[in-house]
């Protein structure tokens, strides 16, 4: 039986776990990584097939993955099945918890949108009086953002907007397509800035922990990894109160095992990290663990058609490309019925028109689809959800997962602030699209259920006061100093921004600090 | 480990292990694993399997030669669904319509396997469509003309975005059923064959993920070792 004590045990292999492994091992610290799922091998695990060869002709298997709107029959086996790892909720307040347990986690499948938080988010309370400021500012994070952007090869344009901070970009100076230029001009006339989107190019199209972070960590010879082990509990030394052991179960054999560690880094993804800490009854002297669950509103949006692009008559360069309207509400002015703000993802497409945007059928519909082919112009919201104490998760002791681990109960809902924000986003976009000369075909004011954005954040918020926060500004537990949470659980507010760059920057910063503290003997 | 301890340990295991040890004498290194039990007789179960290339089977899908036996919808519901399919997606140019793609029968299978709320949406919608046909034109929906069908369908068509179909139940039925009929037809082998005939190269191919190291053990767990009968999967 192995009695080895590892230096740092990292739970989770996604963006945050991968970053922690890279930083710590490059500083000479030995790490062991545990991951709940298997290692995917695209050569072995995939095959190109026509939809008709699948059991349900490309429809989702009935009853399977009801809360994963992103799933389809082709990719259904990549998501966590909620029958295997359930969670509970009030049926009146559904939550879409979208999870991947393959090695690399959700870093394997993400939208690549790469943004920095601004001080309008990090110091939101100072700006509008709501919620709490983070204990750090953009100036603290900026050096780490720059390094992360370099690793992930972020393409973007420097716009000089305080609410859309510039970064270390592969500069995007490509001209707008004709349709996008018309939308940009319409925005300018309305005082709404339309900017270039910002996106991680990664390497060979992949911008994941498994190709950008973990290879560097493994190359040091200081990282070992165990796939297919589900962590049940973190245990502490009764004398010191420090975390010293992790109890896990082999996913396939059900063998129960333990490993000892000097430091534990949690990177299982916001809600899995919090679930593990709650099940371990650890690091919650503040009582706020599980509270302040945040995500972002998605789903509200607009679909249009560019008339000049119909019937195959689009001039070269008229269609194509994407843009982003960064937050513009509640910066210098005050919106009438909501605080904070939203961004809009904008796209112009040369591809087919979704038939749901045309209220016709049969031959008439077919003729219109042919006519409207290559003329789609659309936009979708990414809106801030306010951090509220009452939006929270807890352990449901009556339900266990496939490994007898108690599951999470999720209790969260949107309020008028989010609904009003979504309505404003759609109405504003419609007015810009019409001003640009586009025909609005469809619009939707209703956000998707909470969780849909896959940007669950908070529940172990950071802060300077141990009585009101779980982690300090280094993502280190106030209560258990050799426990660090490097995923999105530390967020105090979420903003509208895809949080990936911020999670990576926080993980890098926390790992740098942890390595220093270990070198000094403080941890 | 001393040889005496090693032998003592092995003897405690089983008679089979003892006989193995006896056959192998004292030349066995302590780290040698016990041999894998084999079936009686000279049966080389797996010989040659690692060398075999892909088996040359000319496999086809059942849809190519067989009909789906409808069993979920009642007879009247099924004829209403067939007529709805016929109206919403008829054959166009060289492409099959919903009937030719076997869409009504496929939807019978799909909806029959679906959660109760989806089943109820279809059943209620088909009943109302048939009732309105009888009320307005004095015939079952299965027998309405195209012009009559248009009067029954068109007022309920809406534009909508992904994941947000109309919420009024009959509007929802009409628009979701329309979308389902189109998807089932366009994803059919008949449609795919037509696309190939039109010279489109594998237009409907996608990257399918097989289960990755699936956990086949899960269903046995409650029987074997679940300590608390109060606990259950949701």
Q: For the CA atoms, what is the radius of gyration of chain A?
A: 23 Å
Give the distance, in angstroms, between the N- and C-terminal Cα atoms of chain A: 27 Å
* Unreliable runs of chain B: 1-26, 220-234
Please count the helical segments of chain B.
9
List low-confidence stretches of chain A: none
Query: What is the subunit organization of this protein?
Result: heterodimer
At the third CATH level, what is the topology name of chain A? FAD/NAD(P)-binding domain
CATH homologous superfamily identity of chain A: FAD/NAD(P)-binding domain
Strand proportion of chain B, as a percent range, falls in: under 5%
Could you spell the SSE succession of chain B in H and E letters? Answer: HHHHHHHHEH
Structure annotation, total helices of chain A: 12
| Largest sheet features of chain B | none
Question: Considering DSSP H and I runs of 4 or more, what fraction of the residues of chain B is helical?
Answer: 40-55%
Radius of gyration of chain B equals 31 Å
CATH architecture of chain A: 3-Layer(bba) Sandwich
Q: Which range best describes the helical content of chain A: under 10%, 10-25%, 25-40%, 40-55%, 55-70% or over 70%?
A: 10-25%
What is the number of beta strands of chain A?
A: 20
* Class computed from helices, strands and strand pairing of chain B: mainly alpha
């Amino acid at each position: 039986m192995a009695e080895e004590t590892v230096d740092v045990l990292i739970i989770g292999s996604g963006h945050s776990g991968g970053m922690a492994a890279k930083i710590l091992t490059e500083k000479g610290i030995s790490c062991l990584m545990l991951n709940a799922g298997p290692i995917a091998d695209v050569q072995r695990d995939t095959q190109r097939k026509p939809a008709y060869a699948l059991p349900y002709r490309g429809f989702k298997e009935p009853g399977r993955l009801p809360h994963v709107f992103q799933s389809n029959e082709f990719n259904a086996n990549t998501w966590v099945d909620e029958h295997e790892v359930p969670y509970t909720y009030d049926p009146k307040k559904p939550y879409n918890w979208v999870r991947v347990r393959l090695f690399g986690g959700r870093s394997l499948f993400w939208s690549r949108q790469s943004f920095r938080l601004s001080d309008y988010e990090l110091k939101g309370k100072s700006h509008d009086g709501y919620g709490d400021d983070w204990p750090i500012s953009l100036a603290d994070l900026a050096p780490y953002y720059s390094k992360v952007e370099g690793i992930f090869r972020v393409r973007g344009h420097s716009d000089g907007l305080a609410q859309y901070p510039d970064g270390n970009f592969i500069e995007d100076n490509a001209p707008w397509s004709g349709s996008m230029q018309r939308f940009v001009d319409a925005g300018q006339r309305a005082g709404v800035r339309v900017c270039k989107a910002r996106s991680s190019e990664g390497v060979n199209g992949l911008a994941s922990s498994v190709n950008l972070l973990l290879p560097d960590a493994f190359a040091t010879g200081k990282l070992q990894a165990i796939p297919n082990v589900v962590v049940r509990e973190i245990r502490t030394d009764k004398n010191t109160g420090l975390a010293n052991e992790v109890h896990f179960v082999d996913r396939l054999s059900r063998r129960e095992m333990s490993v000892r560690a000097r430091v534990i880094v949690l990177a299982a993804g916001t809600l899995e990290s919090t679930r593990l800490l709650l099940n371990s009854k650890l690091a919650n002297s503040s009582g706020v663990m599980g509270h302040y669950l945040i995500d972002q509103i998605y789903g509200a949006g607009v679909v249009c058609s560019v008339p000049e692009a119909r019937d195959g008559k689009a001039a070269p360069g008229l269609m194509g490309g994407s843009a982003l309207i960064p937050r513009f509400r509640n910066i210098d002015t005050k919106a009438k019925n909501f605080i904070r703000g939203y961004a809009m993802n904008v796209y112009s497409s040369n591809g087919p028109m979704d038939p749901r945007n045309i209220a016709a059928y049969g031959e008439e519909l077919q003729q219109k689809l042919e006519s409207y082919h290559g003329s789609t112009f659309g936009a979708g919201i990414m809106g801030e959800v306010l951090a509220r104490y009452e939006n929270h998760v807890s352990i449901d002791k009556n339900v266990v997962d496939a490994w007898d681990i108690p599951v999470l109960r999720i209790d969260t809902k949107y309020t008028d602030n989010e609904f009003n924000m979504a309505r404003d986003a759609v109405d504003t976009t419609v007015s810009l699209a019409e001003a640009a000369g586009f025909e609005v075909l469809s619009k939707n004011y209703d956000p998707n259920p909470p969780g849909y954005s896959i940007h669950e954040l908070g529940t172990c918020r950071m802060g300077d006061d141990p009585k009101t926060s779980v982690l300090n500004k280094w993502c280190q537990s106030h209560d258990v100093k050799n426990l660090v949470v490097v995923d999105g659980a530390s967020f105090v507010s979420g903003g509208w921004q895809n949080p990936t760059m911020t999670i990576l920057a926080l993980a890098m910063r926390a790992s740098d600090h942890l390595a220093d503290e270990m070198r000094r003997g403080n941890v | 480990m001393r040889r005496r301890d090693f032998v003592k340990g092995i003897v405690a295991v089983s008679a089979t292990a003892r006989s193995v040890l006896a056959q192998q004498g004292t030349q066995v290194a302590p780290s040698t694993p016990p041999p894998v039990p084999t079936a009686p007789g000279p049966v080389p179960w797996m010989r040659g399997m690692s060398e075999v290339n892909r088996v040359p089977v000319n496999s086809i899908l059942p849809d190519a030669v067989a009909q789906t036996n409808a069993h979920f919808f009642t007879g009247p519901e099924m004829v209403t669904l067939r007529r709805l399919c016929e109206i919403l997606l008829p054959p166009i140019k060289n492409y099959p319509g919903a009937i030719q793609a076997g869409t009504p029968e496929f939807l019978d299978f799909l909806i029959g396997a679906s959660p109760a709320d989806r089943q109820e949406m279809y059943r209620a919608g088909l009943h109302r469509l048939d009732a309105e046909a009888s009320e307005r034109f004095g015939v079952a929906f299965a027998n309405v003309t195209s012009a009559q069908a248009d009067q029954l369908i068109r007022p309920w068509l809406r534009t909508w975005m992904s994941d947000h179909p109309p919420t009024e139940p009959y509007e929802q039925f009409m628009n979701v059923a329309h979308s389902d009929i189109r998807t089932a037809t366009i994803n059919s082998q008949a449609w795919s064959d037509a696309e190939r005939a039109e010279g489109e190269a594998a237009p409907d191919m996608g990257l399918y993920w097989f289960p990755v190291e699936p956990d086949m053990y899960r269903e046995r767990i409650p029987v074997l070792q679940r300590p608390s009968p109060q606990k259950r999967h949701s």
